[in-house]
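DM from R.C. (forwarded with permission)

"hey, sorry to bug you on a friday — could you get me a structure for this? deadline for the figure draft is monday and I only need the backbone to look sensible"
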Amino acid sequence: MTTKNDIIKYLESINVKHDDTILIHTSLKAIGELDGGADMLIDAFCEYLHQGLFLIPTHTWDKVVPNNPFYDVATTVPCIGTLPCVAINRKDGVRSLHPTHSVVAFGERAREYIKGEEMAASPAPIGGCWSRLYEEHAKILLIGVGHDKNTYFHAVDEILDIPNRLSENGFNITIRDESGNTYTTPPFHTHFTKGISCCCSEFYPNYKRPLEELNAVTYSKLGEATVYCCDAVKCADVIRHMWDKTDHDLCISEEDIPQSYYMDFKER
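My reply, with the result:
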C-alpha cells in the first residue's frame, strides 16, 4: 500500500523541488492501493509543493462538442479517469475555464496561472496553461500511462505550428464560471489530423526512444506504476530539433525515428 510518506519520499528521490511546477497524468489502478485514496495522493503532492504549482488535467473534450457547445466549470465531468473527478470537487484547487482541456491548479499561484483560459481557440494554444509549462520549466509525470496521454505534446505541436493538427471549421463555445458568469469563446478548433482515423496523440509514443536517449525523459516507480518524468523544456526542444530534420509527419503512423534526426541535438 502506498502512503503519503511514500509519495513524499518519491518526490524527493526524483529531485522535485518544493517550488516546482508539476503536472500529472495518472492511472490510479496502475499505482495500486493508496492509503487514503485519490485525495491522499493530491494531499501529498500539495503538501510537498507548498511553494510551487500542482496541476491535474480535467479534460472534457468528449462532452463539449459542436452539437453541445457548453462547458460549466462546476458541473462538466472530466472524461479521463478517477483522479480528475476527485480534483474538481476539492476546495483547495481551482479549475480553469478551458472548455475542452481544463486543469485543476493547486498552490498560491493557481488562480493567476489559469487566468484567461476562457479565450482559448484550440486545445493547447500558445500562451495558455499547457504551452506555459515550457516557461515554467515544469515536470510532467506520466504515472502508469504513456506518451499517448501526454497532453503537453499537443502544446508542443501548437508552439511549433505543426500542420494538419486542428480542424478547419471552428465553433463557438459557451462557458459558465463558478460564479454563474458566462463567456463565449472565439471560434474553437478541435484536434483533427487528416489521413488518420484517430488522434495524432496515438503516435506520440514515436518520440519515446529519442526522448529517453537524450535524457528528456527519465523513469522511476511509484507504487506499482512506472512513471515517465518528462522535462517540459528538454522534450519540446528535442521534438523541435527532430521536426527541423524531417520531411514528413512524424505522428500519423507508428515510426521508429532514425537516430540521425536527434543524436546531434545540443541543449540550449
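R.C.: lifesaver. The mean pLDDT is 97.
me: no worries. The first helix runs from residue 4 to 13.
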